[in-house]
Amino acid sequence: MSSAHRRDAATTRAAILRAGVEAFTRFGFDGVGVREIAQAAGVSAMLVNRYFGSKEGLFAEVVEVSMTDRTVLGGDPATLARDIAATLVRRTSPAADDLSPFLLMLRSAANPRAAEILRENIERHVEAHVHEVAPDTRGTDRAAVALALIAGFWLLRKVIGSSALNETDEKTVEATLTRLFEVLLPGPASRG
């Protein structure tokens, strides 16, 4: 296989993946088909299946790619609670851009197989990251509860537009979230 052919294959695969991220984020797993994704990528449905095996295979890779980025979770154990709270408040502000991984999850979770793929990736990537930066959460439900708090806050503030969450001073909301995350994800100072 020539390097030009490999490069074209890599370019085609990347175009399909980008089209899949966009389509599944906008319409959810059940709201879009392989043909629509292929058309957006400028390829045939047969090529989508060739590169990803099926719509489910493409979705699994889209979720994998989407869940590996750190969009809310920080990496410094000493400031984890404060950093998550500040990022969450900033990223859910009414003026902020939508967060693709959250919308991907929200719009696809009704499909049982999509929910299974989402759960596997959340546990493998997002929960595992929490366990790395907050080792005291291993063997407990605290990482999952912290992620549920993030998802619930995101849903109520950004998607539903909760008046209470959007009209309260952001520093006040951030302080409340920080206290909650300090309980769920205690930093090194809390343990000593």
Explain how this protein is built.
The protein is mostly helical and 192 residues long. It folds into 2 domains: 3-64, Arc Repressor Mutant, subunit A (Orthogonal Bundle), CATH 1.10.10.60; 69-191. It is 73% helix and 0% strand. The chain contains 11 helices and no strands. Helix 1 packs across helix 6 (100-108) and helix 4 runs parallel beside helix 7. The longest helix is centred in the first third of the chain and has 25 residues, at 3-27. The protein is globular and about 50 Å long. The chain starts with a helix and ends with a helix.
What do the pLDDT scores average to?
Answer: 90
Distance between the ends: 58 Å
SS strand fraction = under 5%
Share of residues in helices: over 70%
SS-based structural class?
mainly alpha
Outline type: globular
Largest sheet descriptor? none
Series of secondary-structure elements, N-terminal to C-terminal: HHHHHHHHHHH
Q: Tell me the Rg in angstroms.
A: 19 Å
Subunit organisation of the chains: single chain
Stretches with pLDDT under 50, minimum 5 residues: none
Topology, number of strands: 0
The domain tally reads 2
Helical segment count:
11
